[in-house]
Amino acid sequence: MLNITEVRIHMVETNRSNLRAYGSITIDDCFVIHGLKILQGDSGLFVGMPRRHRDGGEPQDIAHPLDIDTRKHIESMVLDAYAEIVAQTQVQ
Predict the structure, then answer these.
(1) pLDDT of 85
(2) For position 57, which CATH number holds?
(3) pLDDT averaged over the chain?
């Protein structure tokens, strides 16, 4: 299984879109993936992978898991870190 050694969350101030925060993960203390998005969907929160738009405007994922177990693991780690930050800000 993928060894995620750090998760960082950067909250977004506005509620005008479904974007709630940006995130990054560090794998094995030696490889970082920036540009993860925590998004509010119809079925709840989910993690969008980093992407760019090609010349024609078509989106393309820059980095993404190759199997569902890895996707679930990344999403779980990122959403847990997001939930911790949300809980901390509500206490203050």
Answers:
(1) 95
(2) 3.30.1120.40
(3) 93
